[in-house]
Records
---
Amino acid sequence: MGEAVASVACDDLKFGLLRCRFKMENEIMKKQRLSKGWTEEKIRKLAEYHDNMTEDEQAAEIEAALNDDDQTVMVVPTELVPAITKLINKKRVGRVPG
């Protein structure tokens, strides 16, 4: 993340802090490859949705996910995460997220 931030000139005060932040986030997103079916707009909407949730709403969403019979939550060794992620992605081929 440091190299993307360094490539953005933020010392011009007329842009203000928010404009500078937006420029940095935009630069970082340009360097990232998005998963199939995801767009910058979809990511912004998802972030906005979660940013505007109350703690009670967040807790209820987590509780609902933990009680979903179609999903399982488990602890696995960190070194296995890439292999597990790859397997899950193979199962999702052709399916567009959300």
---
Amino acid sequence: MVPDPLPLAGYGAAALVLVLGLVLLAGHLPPAGGPLRRGLVWLNLLLLAALFAALAALAIGRLPWPAAVIAGGLALLAGPLAFQALPRGWRDGTVGLAGLAAVSALLVLLLLLV
């Protein structure tokens, strides 16, 4: 059975963002710094949990399990490499946290619509 390419592409992209976000947040825990930075860390944790739930719902409802496992595995392998390719300011600063929050929120909304 050939999976529908649109949900599979969305699942793969969202899984990559989830892994990338988890690697990025691992460097910011425990939350330290000013109130903006701490707030962004907690916001990202909540958004990544929502992204995980949306990914699970998409995988269970729309994708065959072999395709979901393969796409998730590729995202798990590519996430740390994508993190290393980011500029240092995005990895270690509030710009990266704000960008991750924006992308995660957008993907959660898109996955709920797919």
